[in-house]
Amino acid sequence: MPRKGMTVGVVAVSRKPVSRWAKRGFVPSAVLPAVPSMPPRTRLGPEGDVETWYLGPASIEFHPGDTGHYRDNLLSGRPSVWVALRAGREPEVHLVTVDPYEGEAIAGDPGLVVEAVPMPEALRLAVTAFFEVHHVEEVFVKRNRTRSDPGGRRPEGSRVLHPDKGK
């Protein structure tokens, strides 16, 4: 199966803890369409109690079997990229995906911080081009159910208990 992908840069914000016992956490805030020439975990700057960090590059793979999911994302009105960071002392990019169902599935993992961030235009164009080349519409065919015992025959000696007749 042909696979295609794109490498993006991940940006996160960190807010000052509310109490002295809390740790500083990181939340994904943006995806850059190109990887900048700075090293990972570079602080971009503070704005009050909020710090912005470049966490590093991440690759996004496009799979031909998921093109229906990509279409749903592109037609949602707000195309998004799901970024998952592994919580810890040093934030680590765990996964970046444009599949909304995969993004929602990993959101339940308690060890990850997952956010849907806006999709950059260059990435949106790449996903659209991949969709147009690889999408095959699957026709829904409803199956007819077959009875397991079409003649109503039961093995010798078996009984049917009726609720109104007792035992």
Please characterize this protein's 3D structure.
This protein is an alpha+beta fold. The chain has one domain. 17% of the residues lie in helices and 35% in strands. The chain is built from 3 helices and 7 strands; from the N terminus they run ββββαββαβα. The strands form 2 sheets. A 4-stranded antiparallel sheet has the order 2-1-4-3, covered by helices on one side. The chain has a 3-stranded antiparallel sheet with strand order 6-5-7, covered by helices on one side. A hairpin with a 2-residue loop joins β3 and β4. α1 packs across α3. The model has no long low-confidence stretch (mean pLDDT 87).
What's this, in brief?
This protein is 17% helix and 35% strand.
Strand order, biggest sheet? 2-1-4-3
- By secondary-structure content and strand pairing, the structural class works out as alpha+beta
Question: Quick check: average pLDDT?
Answer: 87
* Helix amount: 10-25%
Number of strands: 7
Low-confidence stretches: none
What is the approximate shape? Answer: elongated
Query: Over all CA atoms, what is the radius of gyration?
Result: 25 Å
Q: Estimate the strand proportion.
A: 25-35%
Number of domains: 1
Largest sheet: 4 strands, antiparallel
In whole angstroms, the N-to-C terminal distance is 60 Å
The topology string of helices and strands comes to: EEEEHEEHEH
Tally of helical runs: 3
